[in-house]
């Protein structure tokens, strides 16, 4: 095409000039959107456990449409956003689909969800604009991989290099009085991080004089302490903190 452009000034008499501008139309091969290359869905949600090994297949994404999936057509899969940590990798397979793999060690406690944007790169005009990219939400499933840890107050003393709780029973005859409260924390989420407490009996019999609230860790007297011989003092208790109490075999 050739377009003539005329420019005028505002003078008296009015002057003008004309320039001819050639226009060239570049041909781009296109296909109808319904048969263009694209992902089968515009979004995906995937769940993977946090102990998934490095290099494991996360998901295979089907690329449609088969009529333009000839090996003569260049095709590449890429992650365009959400993979700043380099935790995932994606490649094209022999059958021209996209293979997403784990490329590192995931941890629910560090990051429980990833949002990736995947893109198909091919010849201009061969892609389906509505499906040339897709969003992927990856949810990391928590596992019971953390052990409860007792939290000691700053005033705690050490015995054999280990910290311990200490308390004084001011009324040795009192029954049901609170002696002290222990506390443990677990990094796992939900029920996996719930902590339950119990006293561990030993040969001294000290645990017979106390009861621990399994939910709060509060330790109370269940018998008067005035009957305990002086030579058996101080009493030592062993408290177990256990996580995920809903699954005793876990």
From TrEMBL:
Q: What is this protein called?
A: Cadherin domain-containing protein
Output the Gene Ontology cellular-component terms: plasma membrane
What is the organism of origin for this protein? Cuerna arida
The record's Gene Ontology biological-process terms are: homophilic cell adhesion via plasma membrane adhesion molecules
Protein keywords = Calcium, Cell adhesion, Glycoprotein, Membrane, Repeat, Transmembrane, Transmembrane helix
Transmembrane found in the keyword field: yes
User: Which Gene3D superfamilies does the annotation name?
Assistant: Cadherins
Q: Which residues form the signal peptide?
A: none
What PROSITE patterns does the entry give? CADHERIN_1, CADHERIN_2
What does the record give under GO molecular function? calcium ion binding
Which residue intervals define the domain Cadherin in the entry? 40-150, 161-244
Q: Which domain of life is it from?
A: Eukaryota
- Which cellular compartments is it found in? Membrane
| Keyword hit for NAD | no
Which PANTHER family does the entry mention?
A: FAT ATYPICAL CADHERIN-RELATED (PTHR24026), PROTOCADHERIN-23 (PTHR24026:SF136)
